[in-house]
Amino acid sequence: LSKQAFIKFEAGESDTTVSKFLLILDGLNITLEEFEQIHKQKNNRDFYYINHYMNYFYKRNLEELEKLATEAENEYSETKNKKFKHYHSLILLLIDYLTDRKDNQHHVEVLKQYLINCENWGYYEVTLFINALIYFSNDFIDGVYGRVKKNFVLNSNQLIRHRHEMAILLFNIIEKKLLEKDTVKLSYYLSELLSLKENTLDNMYVQTMIKYFNCIITAIINNNTDKNEINANISKIIDFLDFIELHTKAKQCKTFYHKIEKLYRIE
Length: 267
Prior knowledge:
Layout: H1 3-10, H2 18-27, H3 32-39, H4 45-58, H5 62-79, H6 82-99, H7 107-117, H8 123-132, H9 138-154, H10 156-161, H11 163-179, H12 186-195, H13 204-221, H14 227-243, H15 247-264
């Protein structure tokens, strides 16, 4: 852009082409998803629903979750945008989880059908898969992950742009498989996680959690592993999370490791 065109664009007095706009974002090292989230944070409905249903879920606020489910249902009726249908289903399933009921289990099929038939994966699809993971069988997870991987391998730019989400997805898959003692594919998912290591060197949280799960899975798979060394490494990771003030995550990691110790009788 010329200096004059840039000044007008920055002031909102002129527009530019999509191709030039994407080059501008690339020059600023900002992804399109990051730009959209920042630019439309107050009005972004994805951000609104994800932020609210997670907040209400952790606070076990059933009344607000029910209101949010109704709001999503109404938005779907008005717009026919499938995202709102998915949010409605997911929120109702969260309510089932908190109340230990199965009134809304038919909504699992809504999410499954969308994910299994999805051809182009992006931030929304990966996030939806992550948040609905607890409702899916291990066979379904393996099948869908294969589709996700195929999409991202074929489009390396997708992997670079969504490497953080891919890491979070793998953390959740590994955690679920560990708790359900589905150890058949643990080595496979660990190798998938380690393959992201080089692409996430700038993300200290992801690097820390990769180390955490690597320690746990190694202890389970390798019977000759030194228990004292594993404990020492896990303690370092938890201390580091506390040091960078991720206190809730540090507590979750400590609790999860104690569960795994008992479940697998790590000695």
